[in-house]
Write a structure and sequence with these properties.
Blueprint: E1 6-11, H1 17-25, E2 28-35, E3 38-46, H2 47-53, E4 60-65, E5 68-79, E6 86-93, E7 99-109, E8 117-120, E9 124-130, E10 137-141, E11 150-152, E12 163-164, E13 171-176, H3 181-191
Parallel strand pairs: 1-4, 2-6, 7-10
Antiparallel strand pairs: 1-3, 2-3, 4-5, 5-6, 7-9, 8-13, 9-12, 11-13
């Protein structure tokens, strides 16, 4: 795992809305680290650093807390609905080598056969992967696909060590030819 996910944290001993607001004014984000049978640890993290790190989904952080390093997966990010600033983070303790279930974005590459459209029916896949090797996304090559082509979850090449949790028959990509006005008008009487 790269060292660019290292963050220094401060232990929080005061709680409540007022204290959380003061933390955010000081450029910090309140957070809680829990899991693996440990007691929850309340911390304050640097807001600017965390905002930059959280641009990528499924971040695993090395949190330095008073000389002790905690490996934690970002589980939940609470944002202000208007200003979109991070208000609170929930972090789950992970162990190197441990497998976790995460939602991973689906991206496409290439172009379908000219004149066809492509729908990305499902934008994420649920995968089980090693906590320290979570892919940012999976890519599906749609080059040259024609009308009627479909790609299901089971057809997607997964990164090494990843296993599919999403239903294998889940439709991910659907390729279709757009219906012209003449075809739509001709189909309407036939439907009656």
């Amino acid at each position: 795992m790269a060292n660019d996910n290292k963050v220094s944290a401060e232990l929080r001993e005061k709680f409540g809305k007022g204290f959380a607001r003061r933390l955010r004014v000081d450029g910090k984000i309140p957070a809680v680290i829990y899991g693996h049978g440990t007691d929850p640890v309340h911390v304050a993290l640097p807001a600017h650093e965390m905002t930059l790190l959280l641009r990528k989904a499924n971040q695993v952080l090395e949190i330095d807390l008073a000389g002790t390093t905690h490996l934690a997966l970002v589980k939940d990010v609470q944002r202000d609905p208007v200003r979109q600033i991070i208000e609170h983070l929930d972090l789950i303790v992970v162990v190197k080598g441990e497998k976790v279930q995460v939602e991973v974005a689906v991206h496409t590459s290439g172009e379908v056969f000219p004149g066809n459209n492509v729908d990305l029916e499902t934008k994420t896949l649920l995968l089980e992967v090693e906590a320290t090797h979570i892919p940012e996304f999976v890519t599906i090559d749609i080059s040259g696909l024609e009308d009627g082509a479909q790609i299901h979850a089971k057809d997607i090449p997964l990164p090494a060590g990843a296993s599919l949790i999403t239903d294998a028959d889940q439709l991910i990509i659907n390729v279709y030819a757009p219906r012209g006005e003449e075809e739509a008008v001709a189909a309407a009487p036939a439907a009656e």
